[in-house]
Amino acid sequence: MSVNSLGVDVGGTNTRLGLVDEHGKIVARARIPTLMREGPESLVERIASKALSIANDETIAQVGVGIAGLIDHHKGIVRFSPNLVGWKDVPLKEMLHERFGVPVAVGNDANVIAWGEYRFGGYGTEHLFCFTLGTGVGGGIVSDGRLILGANDAAGEFGHTSLEPDGSRCACGLRGCLESYVSSRHLTALAKRRMKKRSHLARLTSKEELTPKLLAKAAREGDEVAQKIFAEAGERIGRALGNVVQLLDPEVIVVNGGISKASDLIIKPIRKSLKRYTMPLRGRRLRVVRSKLGDRAGILGAAALAEIL
Questions:
Q1: Cβ contacts of 79-84, under 8 Å, gap ≥ 24
Q2: Model pTM?
Q3: What keywords is this UniProt entry annotated with (predicted)?
Q4: What is the 3-state secondary structure (H, E, C) of 236-299?
Q5: In a structure prediction context, what are the per-residue pLDDT tens digits for the chain, which is 309 residues long?
Q6: Please, are residues 69 and 80 in contact by the beta-carbon 8 Å criterion?
Q7: Which helix (H) or strand (E) holds 98?
Q8: Which CATH superfamily is domain 3-116+296-307 in?
Q9: Are 73 and 108 in contact (CB under 8 A)?
Q10: What CATH class does 125-290 carry?
Q11: DSSP symbol at 162
Q12: How many CA atoms are closer than 13 Å to the CA of 279, on its beta-carbon side?
């Protein structure tokens, strides 16, 4: 009988589960609807039911969960989650432990992804910064092989670093946050405002809804507005990463999240901008790379989370 860890990646729409063996291989996967308005008890019960069904007779030795929001990592309490209605001070670790009877760890999704990239991405470094680009912008820090959580479990909030002091107001209440300028929601809204009549992008959106994927398609096919939007986003991200590099001195910066699938459009301007905003240092070891794990990073990182929490 094999011994596996269960990794759970809780999203606003769907929750993904994976059984991970001792070699870091996902041996079984499943997806359930999050049903965010039904409350934590419902989600815990459905996670347990689905996990046991995909495990068959395999042993689940530990459980890890990644979830967006403010998490007390050591107590396993979800203080607040923007994706889950009514989730406030939810003792998720305790609830899952009662259901599974094994060690349980709960972490912020961006931190969990960063840990997954570090443990299973094969980047060959002990110093890694991972940021996620999608509906929101998150970040996770691994330094000297340790996941850095901070005094208040709030380290790595890359999306809420300020770019423009008098900029637009972010959903968090601050002004000029990076997330307000480079999230998928912002990029598509910007494209709608700038789109020219009879342009290639306009022709594409006449047939289907404008999404980051469609925006990337237009950019690859020569649409100047789409290309400029990705270039501007890359410049802003590189500027923000300059501060990360000065403070943390990572060796590898990993780009994850939905927009990372447009890495051919965004990583080059990120690198160019980062070089401009990073203090020169002879022999600096620094790479900016697209995630090798993609959406597996959340499951893998969650499965390995109980090792450190």
A1: 82/136, 82/171, 83/10, 83/11, 83/12, 83/34, 83/36, 84/10, 84/12, 84/34, 84/36, 84/40
A2: 0.93
A3: Kinase, Transferase
A4: HHHHHHHHHHHHHCCCEEEEECHHHHHHHHHHHHHHHHHHHCCCCCCCCCCEEEECCCCCHHHH
A5: 456 999 999 998 899 999 999 899 999 999 999 998 899 999 999 999 999 999 987 889 999 999 999 999 999 999 999 888 889 999 999 999 999 999 999 999 999 999 999 999 999 999 999 999 988 899 999 999 999 999 999 999 999 999 988 898 988 889 999 999 999 999 999 999 998 877 888 888 877 789 999 999 999 999 999 999 999 999 999 999 999 999 999 999 999 998 888 889 999 999 999 999 999 988 899 999 999 999 999 999 999 998 898
A6: yes
A7: helix 92-100
A8: ATPase, nucleotide binding domain (3.30.420.40)
A9: yes
A10: alpha beta
A11: B
A12: 8
The encoded tokens of residue 87 equal 């989730």
Same-fold call for 3-116+296-307 versus 125-290 = yes
In the block, residue with structure tokens 């570090």: 118
How is the chain split into domains, by residue range?
A: 3-116+296-307, 125-290
